[in-house]
UniProtKB/TrEMBL annotation:
Homodimer. This is ATP-dependent dethiobiotin synthetase BioD. Its main location: cytoplasm. The keyword Disulfide bond does not apply. The keyword Metal-binding applies. Pathway: Cofactor biosynthesis; biotin biosynthesis; biotin from 7,8-diaminononanoate: step 1/2. It is an enzyme of class 6 (ligase). Gene3D superfamilies: P-loop containing nucleotide triphosphate hydrolases. The gene is bioD. The active site is at 37. ATP binds at residues 12-17, 54, 115-118. Catalyzes a mechanistically unusual reaction, the ATP-dependent insertion of CO2 between the N7 and N8 nitrogen atoms of 7,8-diaminopelargonic acid (DAPA, also called 7,8-diammoniononanoate) to form a ureido ring. Mg(2+) binds at residues 16, 54, 115.
């Protein structure tokens, strides 16, 4: 296994933090682990180039650290769905550029952790779905489940869609995003019995937590 594709039950449920924690966990095993955010919308101008904070967080968690253009081939300025942000920027998000960047990252790493956009069914462009990219890269999927009311429905539908698209779910991460959620343990237990993949860990609710600290809560299979 040369990498993972990290998807989520929705947007804003902690894919980036989970991906960065996963990178630290892999590095703690002595592996060269590099992060990638192929398409990112919502960027700011830094040193004359558009850069996204999620991609920068993945670079920070990587070793060796990739150049920005390989980590995030498509940096789209507006914080919109990628298809809309690309249209506004006059950019065409296409598969080959992503595959080429991924190949460069893989050449210098043992594992590449690729973070998707939004939830599983969020398109990358008018012609490209995330499932197309995952199949082209040949990567298994790790699902980040944002623990809040409705997570059972979102997680099970996501897992069903991943399988229907011909992709393989190999694990999931429970990420606490609602400190007031009721029956958290019951929800995690229900997810564990229904998702056909092992839980790789539970990240507690802590807005100040750094990825290296959070990585200690993960148990990634060998």
């Amino acid at each position: 296994m040369h990498g993972f594709y990290v998807s989520g039950t929705d947007t804003g449920i902690g894919k980036t933090h989970s991906s960065a924690a996963l990178l630290h966990s892999l590095r703690a095993r002595g592996m060269r682990a590099v992060g990638m955010k192929p398409v990112a919308s919502g960027c700011e101008r830094i040193d004359g180039a558009w850069k996204n904070e999620d991609a920068l967080a993945l670079i920070e968690a990587s070793d060796p650290r990739p150049i920005y253009a390989d980590c995030n081939p498509f940096a789209l300025p507006l914080p919109l769905a990628p298809e809309l942000a690309a249209r506004d920027a006059g950019v065409e998000v296409e598969l080959q550029s992503i595959l080429d960047a991924h190949a460069r990252l893989a050449a210098s790493a043992d594992v590449v952790v690729v973070e998707g956009v939004g939830g599983w069914a969020a398109p990358l462009s008018a012609e490209l779905m995330q499932a197309d990219l995952v199949r082209a890269l040949g990567l298994p999927v790790v699902l980040v489940v944002g623990l809040r009311l409705g997570c059972l429905n979102h997680a099970l539908l996501s897992a069903r869609a991943i399988a229907a698209d011909g992709c393989r779910l190999v694990g999931w991460i429970a990420n606490a995003i609602d400190p007031d959620m009721d029956a958290v343990e019951d929800n995690i237990a229900m997810l564990a019995t229904r998702l056909q993949a092992p839980c790789w860990g539970r990240l507690p609710f802590d807005p100040a937590a750094d990825a290296a600290t959070s990585s200690r809560s993960l148990q990634v299979p060998a």
